[in-house]
Design brief:
GO molecular function: 23S rRNA pseudouridine(2604) synthase activity; RNA binding
Number of helices: 6
CATH superfamily of the largest domain: Pseudouridine synthase I, catalytic domain, N-terminal subdomain
Order of helices and strands: EHHEEEEEHEEHEHEEEEHEEE
Radius of gyration: 23 Å
Strand content: 25-35%
CATH class of the largest domain: Alpha Beta
Number of strands: 16
Structural class: alpha+beta
Pfam families: S4
EC number: 5.4.99.21
Number of domains: 3
Distance between the termini: 53 Å
Low-confidence stretches: none
Mean pLDDT: 93
CATH topology of the largest domain: Alpha-Beta Plaits
Oligomer: single chain
Keywords: Isomerase, RNA-binding
Protein name: Dual-specificity RNA pseudouridine synthase RluF
C-alpha cells in the first residue's frame, strides 16, 4: 500500500494538469474515487481508482441559491447550519449534484416574520443578494396564515384598503381567504410583526404563519426542514 496523498496531487500525476486545474476539476464534482464523487482537493487517497469525467471543465463552479423550507421559530444562522446534501428534498434530487462547495459562503436574505415557517433564501450569487436587499421594497412576499376567531364586519375590505390599529397605521395588503381558517397575505417588504397586527386588527388570532413565495419564486413541494436549488428559469 502506498502512502496517502492529496487527491489533487494524484490527479496531477494522472492527467498532467496544473495544481489549479486539479482543484477546479475536483471542486466542480468531476473527479471520482472508486466510483464516488469527491469534491475536496485535500481528500487523501492511496491505491483507490481515481477517474476524471471526460466532460470535465476546469472552471469555478457556478454560484448556487438554496431555497429552504425553514421550521417555525428558527433563526437564519441555525437554519443555514441544517443545509446539507442529506437535507436536499427527495423530490428535487435530480439535475444539479450537491457539492460541499455549495454550502460555503452562503448569505441569507429576507428574514421571516417572528415565529413563522416557510421560504428562506441562501445564496452565493451577489446579483441575487443585491436584488433581494436593494429591491426589497419592490418585491412581493406571500404568506399563508392560520387563524382562529371571527373576523370583524368588512374585515377583508379594511385589510385591502389599509387601517389603523392601536394608533399604528397599517399599510394596505392583498388579503383573501384560502379556506375557512387560513388567510393569504401578499405584501411588499413586511415589517417585523406586521402580519400578526393585521390579524389582530380584524379580530383574529394567529395560530401559524408560513411564507410560501418571494417575488416569482415559491418554495413549492419541499417538506419542512428540507431545501431545493433555485432553477435557472426562476426569477425573484
Amino acid at each position: 500500500m502506498t502512502d496517502p496523498i492529496r487527491l489533487s496531487k494524484r490527479l496531477i500525476e494522472l492527467v498532467g494538469c496544473s495544481r489549479r486545474e486539479a482543484e477546479l476539476f475536483i471542486e466542480g464534482g468531476w473527479v471520482s474515487v472508486d466510483g464516488e464523487v469527491i469534491d475536496e482537493p485535500q481528500f487523501k487517497v492511496t491505491d483507490e481508482k481515481v477517474e476524471l469525467d471526460p466532460e470535465a471543465k476546469a472552471t469555478a463552479p457556478e454560484p448556487v441559491t438554496i431555497l429552504l423550507h425553514a421550521p417555525a421559530g428558527v433563526d437564519a444562522e441555525t437554519a443555514m447550519a441544517s443545509i446539507s446534501a442529506e437535507t436536499l428534498s427527495e423530490e428535487h434530487r435530480f439535475g444539479k449534484r450537491p457539492l460541499k462547495g455549495h454550502f460555503l459562503r452562503l448569505s441569507a436574505s429576507a428574514d421571516l416574520q417572528a415565529r413563522a415557517s416557510g421560504l428562506l433564501v441562501f445564496t452565493q450569487d451577489w446579483k441575487i443578494l443585491r436584488k433581494l436587499t436593494a429591491d426589497a421594497a419592490k418585491i412581493e412576499q406571500e404568506y399563508v396564515v392560520e387563524v382562529e376567531g371571527d373576523m370583524v364586519a368588512h374585515g377583508l375590505n379594511r385589510l385591502n384598503h389599509g387601517l389603523t390599529h392601536k394608533g399604528k397605521e397599517l399599510p394596505a395588503v392583498k388579503a383573501s381567504w384560502q379556506n375557512e381558517n387560513r388567510l393569504r397575505f401578499a405584501i411588499k417588504n413586511p415589517q417585523p410583526g406586521v402580519i400578526s397586527l393585521f390579524c389582530e386588527a380584524v379580530g383574529l388570532k394567529v395560530i401559524a404563519i408560513r411564507r410560501i413565495r418571494i417575488g416569482g419564486v415559491s418554495i413549492g413541494k419541499v417538506p419542512v426542514g428540507q431545501w431545493r436549488y433555485l432553477s435557472g428559469k426562476e426569477k425573484f
